[in-house]
Design goal:
By secondary structure, this protein is α+β, with helices and mostly antiparallel strands. Helices cover 35% and strands 17% of the residues. It is built from 24 helices and 21 strands. Strands 2, 3, 4, 5, 10, 16 and 17 form a seven-stranded mixed β-sheet that branches. Strands 12-11-21-20-19 form a five-stranded antiparallel β-sheet, with helices on both faces. The protein has a three-stranded antiparallel β-sheet with strand order 1-8-9. Strand 11 and strand 12 form a beta hairpin. Helix 4 packs across helix 6 and helix 12 runs antiparallel to helix 24.
Length: 705
């Protein structure tokens, strides 16, 4: 009898526990709202909110912030609160109307056009967003066919959401877009619906006065440019497309995360990327916050800071000098030479010789990156395409800046001996059907007479290099150019055009039929930097660095180091990287460096008159480079264009010549003469060696003549 009493007591206790568990589940269901059930009596709601973390800063090599973050506010919906409120549709349409009145754009991913005739816009969305739409259609509460037409979908959702029949189709579609966003949070793993990002203080106050249920303010950040310079390399951020999502989802990115779309933002995305946090919010029916806490292990983590190799003060000097020169060129009241008045774009690169660090990367014309979003059409349609990064993307004929390559190839292949002279006859007459001339001959029927390697570079004698080109095979010349980095990837982290060297393969790839054949004349013209040679200003600067390093070619780089978000620790430091070596003898090195030094320092040097010479109006007319303790080695290049246009202009230099620290490459489209670009390099050299800051440097007006 006692055993039966114990059994009954145990059974009663078990039954009591079952009832208690069921009651607990019921209580939880009442407290945590579900939008597909009647939640009018729910007292609290628990939602997951994604908390944005700050993207890392981009700085120059001296710690100056180039791109950082500005504090901002987002308007975010708690979908449980707005859905369970009275007059949900009326609150939403009131909000939409106010946004229209203020001209505010809000997030709406509903893939149907906003006006009649209604059509799907699924092609505008990533595969993930299309998948979310299919999940929405197939959810039990909605139960719509996946092949439903857009007009019928709008009609059905008007019924589902009880939108009044006397509302316009546009108002109905607008409310449906917001209801769709809210309900997606029930059928997917998306976090809270961010209605408006980066709302201004003025607009924030006006919208909050509407008292829309569930609309909350979340602190956030947006990218902010701290300089108007370096626009072509800083880059921008934006939403992912389908291809981006396929890549970044494997790296744990949220589907609606913003990523770098260009420039440094894109190149260093993984370093700059911030990991958003996950917060559990508990609110009451009116949206009042009961509690907030981060999910364990999912606190927001700011991105690391990227310190680039760019020297902002030097970048400012280069860009201002480049703009001053190009504006001078096209002004007939100032440029009275009659040449270069049709000049268009230009670029300048400055690099550290021993590391490959890019100190300056400038393109002209340029723009203020902070204005790009607001004035994109005007900037895009401005003369000479300000958005085009000529420094990395424009492949130009190098002109006579190529001639050191030819001299090196001839000497290293035993086709020219140090000190040997070649007599300039004005016209290269070895071939009956191909008779190129030296510029001195075509200009005034004179010749350079006896020419050695120094004089050949000093006066840029084409005849001398025609002869060397004729002695070489194209394979020998091409191998040297390749080893010097011409027509090769430079190593930079940004996208670049690699151009092409003049050789049988590149010509065959560009032409068809008999014009694709590589002739003897092509080889000879290649030796003076013409024919099919096409290189970017970045490649020309890497080439100059490789000349300075006696054939050792370092990868060009924009990355100095990566540091923690609070600058407290070093994450990674970039190291110089050698990507090729060309064995250049001491004799060959001495030969081309003697010639390049003569370009600036000898009386007949092609850049003598512009770079500190008697026609340089800034300095005394003493015919001297103004800093005798710093010798400069250089080469000018003038590349022919169509005869109706001015020639392109190129200039490269190294300094100091006896132990080069930096290399500079300047290129001007239709800027007439390579020597005329030397004044820009002079500004940069003066700032680098003597001034030390952009504010100390007065940009001079180049005097041509």
């Amino acid at each position: 009898m006692e055993r039966i009493s114990k059994f009954r007591a145990f059974l009663l206790m078990a039954l009591f526990l079952v009832v208690l568990v069921l009651f607990s589940f019921k209580l939880f269901g009442l407290q945590v709202g579900q939008t597909n059930t009647n939640i009018s009596n729910v007292t609290t709601y628990s939602t997951i909110t994604r908390v944005k973390a700050a993207r890392g800063d981009i700085t120059d090599r001296n710690g100056n912030i180039l791109v950082g973050n500005r504090a901002s506010y987002d308007l975010v919906f708690n979908h449980y609160v707005i859905i369970s409120s009275d007059n949900t549709n009326e609150s939403l349409v009131k909000l939409i109307d106010k946004c229209g009145e203020l001209g505010i754009k809000y997030n709406d991913h509903f893939p149907v056009t906003r006006t009649r005739p209604f059509e799907y816009t699924l092609d505008n969305y990533s595969a993930a967003w299309r998948g979310y739409f299919q999940s929405f259609l197939s959810d039990d509460w909605c139960g719509l066919d996946s092949d439903i037409t857009a007009p019928l979908l709008i009609q059905k959702l008007r019924e589902v959401y009880k939108i009044p029949s006397d509302w316009s189709d546009e108002d109905a579609r607008a409310v449906i877009g917001l209801r769709y966003e809210l309900d997606l949070r029930n059928v997917t793993n998306l976090s809270s619906y961010i209605f408006i990002e980066d709302v201004s203080d003025e607009h924030l106050a006006v919208i909050l006065e509407l008292n829309v249920p569930g609309l909350m303010v979340e602190a956030s950040t947006v990218r902010e440019y701290h300089t108007k310079y370096a626009a072509h390399i800083l880059g921008s951020v934006g939403a992912m497309d389908t291809a981006d999502w396929e890549y970044y989802k494997e790296k744990g990115y949220a589907m609606d995360a913003y990523i770098g779309q260009s420039g440094f933002e894109e190149a260093f995305e993984l370093e700059l990327h911030a990991v958003d946090g996950t917060r559990l919010d508990v609110v009451d029916k009116d949206g009042t916050i009961i509690s907030q806490e981060y999910v364990e292990g999912e606190e927001p983590k700011a991105g690391n800071n990227v310190e680039t190799t760019i020297d902002l003060s030097l970048q400012i000097v280069a860009e201002d000098s480049l703009a001053d020169f190009m504006e001078y060129m096209v002004d007939p009241a100032r440029n009275t030479t009659g040449e270069g008045l049709d000049a268009e774009g230009a670029a300048v690169i400055v690099m550290e010789v021993k590391t490959g660090d890019v100190l300056v990367c400038a393109s002209y014309p340029t723009y203020d990156p902070a204005d790009l979003l607001n004035n994109y059409d005007a900037i895009e349609n401005a003369d000479f395409d300000p958005l085009y990064n000529r420094a990395l993307l424009a492949a130009y004929p190098p002109g006579s800046t190529y001639k050191m390559c030819t001299l090196i190839s001839a000497m290293e292949n035993g086709k020219y001996q140090y000190g040997e002279t070649i007599y300039d006859e004005g016209v290269f007459t070895k071939y009956d059907n191909f008779r190129p001339t030296c510029l001195a001959w075509s200009s005034n029927r004179r010749t350079h007479q006896e020419v050695d390697h120094v004089k050949a570079l000093e006066v840029s004698c084409n005849y001398f290099f025609y002869e060397l080109g004729d002695r070489l095979t194209i394979q020998q010349l091409d191998a040297t150019a390749k080893a010097l980095g011409l027509g090769e990837h430079t190593g930079v982290e940004l996208y670049e055009n690699i151009g092409h060297r003049s050789n049988p393969e590149s010509k065959a790839a560009q032409y068809t039929g008999s014009t694709a054949q590589f002739f003897t004349g092509d080889r000879i013209l290649t030796a003076i930097g013409q024919s099919e040679n096409r290189f970017t200003p970045m490649q020309l600067c890497v080439y100059a660095c490789t000349l300075a390093n006696k054939g050792t070619r370092y990868a060009a780089t924009f990355l100095n180091r990566v540091v923690a978000s609070d600058y407290s620790s070093l994450i990674r430091e970039n190291q110089p990287r050698i990507i090729s070596n060309l064995d250049i003898s001491d004799t060959t090195y001495r030969a081309y460096m003697e010639g390049m030094t003569a370009v600036i320092n000898n009386p007949r040097g092609t850049a003598r008159d512009v770079m500190g010479g008697p026609d340089d109006s800034v300095y005394d007319d003493d015919g001297l480079w103004p800093y005798p303790d710093i010798k400069v080695a250089a080469k000018t290049g003038t590349a022919e264009t169509f005869k109706i246009f001015s020639d392109n202009a190129a200039f490269i230099c190294l300094a100091p010549a006896d132990n080069p620290q930096i290399a500079i490459a300047v290129y001007g489209e239709k800027a007439a003469h390579g020597s005329w670009m030397a004044g820009i390099a002079e500004d940069i050299l003066r700032a680098y060696f003597y001034e030390g800051a952009a504010s100390d440097v007065a940009i001079y007006e180049n005097k041509l003549g």
